[in-house]
Automatic annotation (TrEMBL):
It holds the Pfam family Metallophos. Homodimer. This is Metallophosphoesterase domain-containing protein. Keywords: Glycoprotein, Iron, Metal-binding, Secreted, Signal, Zinc. One of its GO terms (cellular component) is extracellular region. It comes from the Eukaryota. It is found in: Secreted. Belongs to the metallophosphoesterase superfamily. Purple acid phosphatase family. Residues 40-288 form the Calcineurin-like phosphoesterase domain. Residues 1-21 form the signal peptide. CDD domains: MPP_Dcr2 (cd07383). Its cofactor is Zn(2+).
Length: 377
């Protein structure tokens, strides 16, 4: 009997370790908070616009920088960011390749994601509006991505026959190994395909998050919230129309161009507010906007453009956004649930200068405020 159990145990272990390592094929969604720091850190890379590597020149850099600047500068920047931040997850929020200038979509993606793959850090990607403009369709691009090494990207959720787009999925981040939260998702990550362009002739402009995707989000969020009320973060490419609700007085960062959302509002922001778990949304698309502003308890954030073959502003550094989620420490010194969610950006200058640090959410500002009795005056 003991021998039988041992064999079963060994089989189970080898099976589970295989699932953990072959993350893509509908396998694990298992990410975990770091035990040492009680933290989970995400690096967002928006709009790499990768094309043909060393043959592809940079856009919008200073005249003196033009001669020695290519896609390879984008790769160097990712490597430096990975070294500096040592993230637990790297998220690429679309326009990962600039298909229009990429001779071969596969070669371009291989080069674009190479630094992430070489680091061995799990990574996830969604599509922008330019990824399908080379030799592969949107479907083909996402299919290719989910087969790449170390990615947790998924094609689409199982059990949902009809869903718009490619690359709608969620990832769970479990509590620290050995803690009371080790088997619970205490941070939920949602990834959506915000589309490319409208296919409705009477509606011009960019795509939007469709009802089928919102339904999937609602169902997923509800199911997750049933087992534990974890905060969530959402990543996609095209900003929601609500990004236009801010000005200098109520955001952190800059707005140097218009908000290029869809020309219609498909209601995803309202859906997020209704579900209540998502505390912040992270997009790209508008390369020279990099702000974060809060509306109805949800932060709407840009990462700012990352890639050198993407339009930008000469003299205004390419940049990336980092999110650090910290756990609270229990009275016995063990790690608990999420305490706070912070963000900052780093510029691609000599020192990778960190700017615009801010708190996006904290358990005590949201949870306990409501419980306190209203003081009588
Ligand atoms: C791009 O990389 C080259 C080679 O390392 C470097 O000399 C140049 O300064 C970089 N350009 C920018 C804009 O960072
Ligand atoms: C988590 O699951 C493992 C394996 O099923 C079990 O051994 C452990 O006791 C569980 N821990 C908690 C805190 O639920
Ligand atoms: C930001 O401030 C402007 C006024 O300066 C106001 O019109 C807008 O509604 C504010 N936005 C939010 C989300 O509070």
């Amino acid at each position: 009997m003991a021998r039988f159990l041992l064999i079963v145990l060994i089989l189970l272990c080898s099976l589970s370790s295989r699932i953990e390592s072959s993350s893509n094929a509908g396998g694990t969604k298992q990410l975990r908070f770091n035990r040492k720091k009680g933290e989970f850190k995400i690096l967002q890379v928006a709009d790499m616009h990768y094309a043909d590597g060393r043959k592809t020149p940079c856009e919008d850099v200073l005249p003196k920088q033009i001669a020695h600047c290519t896609d390879l500068n984008t790769s160097v920047f990712i490597n430096r960011m990975i070294q500096a931040e040592k993230p637990d997850l790297i998220v690429f929020t679309g326009d990962n390749i600039f298909g229009f200038d990429a001779t071969d979509a596969v070669a371009s993606m291989n080069a674009a994601f190479a630094p992430a793959i070489a680091s061995g850090i799990p990574w996830a990607a969604v599509l922008g509006n330019h990824d399908q403009e080379s030799t592969l369709s949107r479907k083909g691009v996402m299919k290719y991505i989910v087969g790449m090494k170390h990615t947790l990207s998924q094609f689409n959720p199982g059990g949902f026959d009809v869903i718009d787009g490619f690359g709608n999925y969620n990832l769970e981040v479990h509590g620290v190994e050995g803690s009371g939260f080790m088997n619970k998702s205490i941070l939920n990550l949602y990834f959506l395909d915000s589309g490319d362009y409208s296919t409705v002739p009477s509606i011009p402009g960019y795509g939007w998050i469709k009802p089928s995707q919102q339904f999937w989000f609602q169902q997923t969020s509800k199911k997750l919230r049933k087992s534990f009320k974890a905060p969530g973060l959402a990543y996609f490419h095209i900003p929601l129309p609500e990004y236009a609700n801010f000005d200098k007085s109520n955001f952190t960062g800059v707005r140097q161009e218009g908000i290029s959302s869809a020309s219609v509002n498909s209601g995803f922001f309202t859906t997020l507010v209704g579900a209540g778990d998502v505390k912040a949304v992270f997009t790209g698309h508008d390369h020279i906007n990099d702000f974060c502003g809060e509306l109805t308890g949800i932060h709407l954030c840009y990462a700012g453009g990352f890639g050198y073959h993407a339009y930008g502003k000469a003299g205004w550094s390419r940049r990336a956004r980092v999110v650090a989620v910290s756990l609270e420490k229990g009275s016995h010194g063990d790690w608990g649930a999420v305490k706070s969610i912070k963000t900052w950006k780093r510029l691609d200058d000599k020192k990778l200068t960190a700017i615009d640090g801010q708190v996006l959410w904290s358990q005590h500002s949201s949870g306990s405020r409501r419980k306190k009795p209203i003081p009588r005056v």
